[in-house]
Amino acid sequence: MAHLKKNTRGAVPGLAVHFERKTDHHTNKEIDVAKTYRNQDLMTDGSDMLSRFNERLNEVYFMKRDDVKALATWIVTLPEELSEAPYEQQNAFFEATKQFLDDRYGQENAVAAVVHYDETTPHLHYAFVPVVFDAKKERYKVSAKEVLTRHDLQTFHDELDQNLKAVLPFYEQGVLNHKTLPFENVAEIKKYNDQFKALKEELANVEENISAKKALLKVTNQALTEVELAEKQIDDFKQALSKNLFGKTVLKPDDLDRFKSVLANMKKATLQSQRDVADSNQALLKTKAQLAEVQADYQQLKDTHQALQQRVREKQQMDYAMRDMLKNDYGVEKIPHSDVEARYVLYRLDHEQLTKSKKEATSWLAKLKTARENPDSKIASSRLDRGIEQVKALINRIIELTRDLFKGPSL
């Protein structure tokens, strides 16, 4: 299984510390320092990651902005089938993977290739500067957007898998195992993950709001108590003065009355604050109700998410079974991606699951034509031609229905 991350220039020093184990104080608790000696640097030029990175950056054009993604990192995990394999086979797997990445992104752009054996699962950290040639300005430049395109990410796992199977005789099941998500499910999972994250953030905000209002209520009640206590002390003091042995007072009662009036105003303000708190309590009750709804939505989404993951696992098992059947029973090593998309369209047509969207129908037509033009396609040309004609007719019907809709009833 492989994972990609794009990083800014500011993140590179920290990544270098982690990749090259430049510290003994690791925040990652899974690192077993007793096994660190087994780690392997596959780049043998005697330099280090940071030096290679700065050197390559100086050789190409780089827009000096903090948000520019200057470094891309792939993490490729050792497949489960090789977890008990000899060290030599595991090392050969990572060496072959590095060679594939060098060929794909350019060996001159690679700045790190380190295998970690001191964590839970052995894995390769491969880092490179995403460089592309700018034909307009006739120079090489850093552009993660142009190097790591959607097509590159869609084809990466399959091409890595095929490459490793071609060069490693002991490599059979591959990185496309039952833990690898099929591409068509990624968008759906991302949608649920985004909703899941948003609900968690909303829940945190609600809880913070509740804590703030509780603190306000506590402070206001304390202020009211202090004012009432001060008022009582003034009354006691005034009565004590009136009972003076000589019948005189040091302070005039009017002065004390004015002071008491000030306290009364303070009390009035505090009572107003208390009323505000009462209103806040009402809002708090409402917020608590909202919190309960959010928690219910959170639980429902979590259940849906788990159900989705279960469906994905079932689909992955079926996907592996179909791949195994095609390879071992029918001798089919690889199915073009265009064939997969075209077969999906043909299935919809055969089962009359037609779209009402012109945009989607147009994309169907493009997929069928792409498969028809591919010399490696396994689909019969006659079937593709028939499908193309069906989609063309479908597009014409959609256009006619749209035209009638906008025309309206005749007078």
TrEMBL record:
According to its UniProt entry, the protein's GO biological process terms are:
DNA recombination
Coiled-coil regions, chain positions: 189-240, 284-318
What top-level branch of life does the organism fall under? Bacteria
GO MF terms listed in the record are: DNA binding
Q: Does the keyword Coiled coil apply?
A: yes
CDD domains assigned: MobM_relaxase (cd17242)
Q: Which UniProt keywords apply?
A: Coiled coil
Family named by the database record: Belongs to the plasmid mobilization pre family.
Q: What is this protein called?
A: Mobilization protein
Record organism: Periweissella fabalis
